[in-house]
Amino acid sequence: MADCDLLFLPTTPTIYRVAEVEADPVMLNARLGTYTNFVNLMGLCAVAVPSGFRADGLPLGVTVVAGAFADAKAATIAGAFHRDTGLTLGATGADPQ
């Protein structure tokens, strides 16, 4: 990360239904962290935000990763991105001000 301010990554490789996770929670949860498991291991910080929807209507997200103790930078960029998407704060319908 010495030459990089931020990484912008997909949050998860896919989405599972509740029944699928209940049937195999360890494996499926491990897969969900494919792109981001390294963040804690490397002492980095990250913020996940929604980025839209797939063709089948399921949500997509991105994760903004920054260096150690750069939480404010990651949160600022993630917040700006979220506002630019025009998406609301989850099911609340509230603007991400």
Question: What can be said about this structure in brief?
Answer:
The chain has 97 residues and is α+β, with helices and mostly antiparallel strands. It has helices at 18-23, 25-32, 38-41, 71-85, and strands at residues 6-10, 45-53, 59-66.
Integer average pLDDT = 91
Unreliable residue stretches? none
Helix percent reads 25-40%
Structural class: alpha+beta
**Number of separate helices:** 4
Description:
This protein has four helices and three strands. It has one domain (6-90). The protein is an alpha+beta fold. A three-stranded antiparallel sheet has the order 1-3-2. The protein is flat.
Q: Any key phrases for this structure?
A:
3-stranded antiparallel beta sheet; alpha+beta; 23% strand; 97 residues
Topology of this structure?
Elements: E1 6-10, H1 18-23, H2 25-32, H3 38-41, E2 45-53, E3 59-66, H4 71-85
Antiparallel strand pairs: 1-3, 2-3
